[in-house]
Each structure stands twice: as C-alpha cells, then as structure tokens.
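#structure-requests
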Amino acid sequence: MIKNFILLLSLLPMCLLCAQRTVIAGKFPYQRDVPFSVAFISNQVVLIDEWGKVAGTSDAQGLFHLELKVDKPSIMRFTQRENVDLYIRPGDSLWIEMINGRNVTFGGTAGRENNLLFSLSRPFIPIETQENPSEYSMLIDTLYQKQRQSLKIYQAEQSDEGFVSLFTAKAQAQFLEDKIRILEFMQKEAWEGNLKDRVERQIRNLPLVDEVRAEAYINALHRLFTLEVQQIMGIDWSANERNAEIAYPPGYQDVFRRHWQERLAELPKLKQYFEIEEWVAAIQFCSQLEKLASAEAALERIKQIKSYPALIQEMEYTYRKSVIVLKMGKLPNMLWETPNGQVAELKATEAQRTLLVFWDASNQESLAAYQRFQEKTTIRFPGSTQDSLISAVTPRKLIWIQVGGDLAKWKEVLNRLPNTYSTEHYAIKKPEDIAALKPYLYEDKLPVAFNLRPDLSIESISNRPTVVDYPSWEVQTMGGKVIWKRQKE
C-alpha cells in the first residue's frame, strides 16, 4: 500500500468561445532571472497529468507577466522551487510577490481569495506538541476555528460561492487529517477517556462539503472512510500501520463501497467521483482475459459522464491496450527490410525481451520520440538537485520499425541522428502488412511501442518509448483510491 504520493491533476478542455483574458503578474523581490511555470489543475477524477504548462522567467528586476485564456473559476499551480496553488476567475488580474513557498502575498482582483487560500498553509508545529494528543488536539481546534472565522468575514464582505466551497473543503481536509492522526496515536497507545471520545465525535460529525476540486480533501475522505470501514469490520489497523502492505480481509472492497455510497448519498459530486474511481480501477487493473467484460462495462459507464472527455479518451486507450495484450496476444507476421533492403524477421529468444517501436521518421511526433530515446538517460534521485546518468539500461533488444512513409527521409534521419543504444532499424512497406498492424495502434497514430516477452507475446504497450524499462503510467492506490500519474518526459 503506497501511502505517500504527489497529485498533479489535469485541466478539463477549455471552451475558448467563452474564455476571457486573465493576467498573472508579480515579482520575486530578492531574485532575478528566476525560471517558473504555471499549470492549470482541476480534479479530473483519477486521471493525473500536467496540462498547458507555461514556462517563463522573470526579468532583471525580478518582474514577470503572463496572460491566459480562462473560461471558468479555476485552480492553478505556480511553481518556483516550491508549489503555490492559485485561485483565478475569468478576467482576473492577480499580482504575486514571492520570496519562497512560505512567503507569498497577493493583490489584484483575486488577491483576497488567494491570501485567504494561502492562510491555510500550516504553521510549524513542534514534534513535542504533535506527540501530546491533548495539546495537539487543542491547537488543531484553534487553527480550524480561525479558518472558519476568516471565511465568515469573507462571506460577509463579498461572495464567491465556488471559492467558499473550495476553501471549506481544504480546511476540512487539514482538520480531518490531523484529527485522524491524533486518534490513531491514541489507538496505538491504548488511550481511553474523554479526549478520545471527543476526537471520535469530531471526526464522525464533521459535515462534509460536496467539493471535488481540492485534492487534499479527496485524500482525507479516503483516509476517513478507510478508518471507518476498518472499525466496522474490526480490523486491527495498528498492525497494518506497521506493515508496508495491508492485507485486507475478504469482502473489504464491498464493505468499503457500500460505506462511501451511504456517506455520500446526499453529495452528488463526490459520489460520482468515487464511482468513476471504481470504474477506472476496473479498466486499469484488467490483467486477465475474463475481466475484459467488466472493464468494457466500466468504460461504457464512464462514457456517460460527458464532463470528462479527456478521461474518457484515456480510458478508451487503456481498454484497447488490454484487448490487444489479453485477446490479440502477439503482433502479426510482417515482412521487414533493413535500410540496405535485406529481409529480416523477429525471432523468439530464450531469455531476452524486446522493445519494438513502430514509427514514421517523417512525422514530427515520431521524430521527437526517437531523438529523446537516443539521448543519454538520466534520473534525479530523492534529495538531489542534480540529474545522474543511468549507465546500465534495461537489457532488451531495441528495434524501431518505419511504417510506410518516405523511406528516403527515414534513411536520412538514421544517418543523421546518433545511435546511442545500438538500436536495430527496419521498415515495413507492403500495404497488407501496414493494414495488419493498424488494429494494434490503440491511438491510431505513431509512435507506438510494444514490450515483448521472450516468446514474443505482448507484455505492455506505450506511446512513449524509452530505453529505461518503466511504464508510461504510474498507478498508485490508497484506501481503495486509484491514482494515475503520467510519467514526465
């Protein structure tokens, strides 16, 4: 069970016809020529991806300025060493002065909302306080009351109900996480008495808000429901806390499902969110042929949710890949030719796996993928600020196959670009071979990469070929929640 993860959520496609000019400008008072980025984020249920990232750099005086087209109140993530979430509306002009992620002030038409949102940043709490349940609980109550009071003042002076809902959800997320942490500590220490009873009541009686944009709130709800289901089923959660992997008893997922359905019965946005999570899980974790029918049914349900076109498309791609791997099994037989016109074919090996990439050197997307593929592969280790070169790549046979197209251009590209990782190159020319390949192109475009087992059966499919052997999607779970994160290039 993976407990720590980073969420970065994708923006739903914007309606450009109703989008308005929105300005974000500001200053780094003590820094000059500082690179930064701005990315829209919006809760795309469980599909997690960067979208519309705008990179920029401040000038010699530390000033920066960018303009965006925004069609509805949105959340953005401003990145300059540390992340700061922003709340903007169509037509807003937001001013930011940022020393670091803990010292930020806002002005302009969205300044009030963003200063209030930034006030949710948790102050430093000493370890001694965190390990004292009574003192820690009182501190959390005080902080939460201050947040609620600030919100009341804001509501009295102006009203943006969308922001009120978002702020409430983020404040509740902090409150729930802290109170659950206190309760778990008392459970572990066999603590009984009025304090434990009070914390349990606070957790149980907190009125939920129907808000899905706040990622921390969604995470807190999953943790809350997991705790409640463990109590319902009598699971010794303290033993689970000590293990990296939690062994849930038979029927746990059914109980978990019934529980959140009951808890969210009057909260339609959250209820739909949790439903779609389950459908996505059915598609993503479809690893057996007999589960394809359930995955197909889940896909049909997702297609009915018209609000999430990007999610629908990704789930269609994921389902098609499962069909190719589980049902079709192996690539069709094709006649390959080397750049010198020699005929070749792929043969099974006793132990070696194969990365087989179909591409078109005349296509810009394919060409960019091959250039990235041949670059020296690096990785940044946790805690490091430098990228380290990966010296040992995954031992696989590396093959790139040109699919029709301009063969003269293909040969010119191969002669011009480096062959860093000893890649073999072939082409398929016959129309019947290209037609036979088409059903295997799950996105109906190139490049498409196939990881093949030693017996040449298809192990996985991706549109991001890489020398380092990892999938293009990371999938994590927590308390029944499925989290998707697209690998960065």
